[in-house]
């Protein structure tokens, strides 16, 4: 899609639970240091939801493909991000920066946002992820920004929804995939072959997650023990295999096909 947004700075939404006052204070200070003002958006507390009876959650599909349910924190996180997309559509917000409340920002982060607002490379979703091995197997650099940053396309599907910039059209598109949920929000972001969004990353990432502090999502999501029985247990190996194959094929197809439209930027 072609990016058609104002060069004015977008609103900065920070997802935060009202009870997490220290996180709110920390983010206010961190954003002030880089010249940005937060709009705190009340998070959905997944631990307060009746998840087995939640109409927004497809637990059966989740268990078929992963052998376990999404955790309460993951569901709350997803619904929080979805609520911002709904606000963007309802209020006709052209573009927004969305942050979770446990991130660190580079001193020149505001410059990166300004450069992205006026760049010639079209985008729908800019993800500020880069921890781990995201860029280790290579990437395609499409444009240079100030301070040594590049707009890039990667052949992988990295995790993380702690910081990103998206357009209103992207918000509409993501909402289409968030009626009955079975994967976390960052996985939805990474499935560009399904969303058909022009999804790009910034290298190096000017935003990093706080990996030392406790996560509000919780660490139970890393427990790989299976919680299935009956027909779901029988179907799980086949569904899981299909998920891995389709995921691997999807991200490689997107990376390959995008070369044809990326090449005009690669030559610059």
From TrEMBL:
One Pfam family it belongs to: Glyco_transf_25
CDD domains: Glyco_transf_25 (cd06532)
Ranges of residues in domain Glycosyl transferase family: 11-187
InterPro entries: Glyco_trans_25
Protein name per the record: Glycosyl transferase family 25 domain-containing protein
Species per Swiss-Prot/TrEMBL record: Sneathiella litorea
Classification lineage: Bacteria, Pseudomonadati, Pseudomonadota, Alphaproteobacteria, Sneathiellales
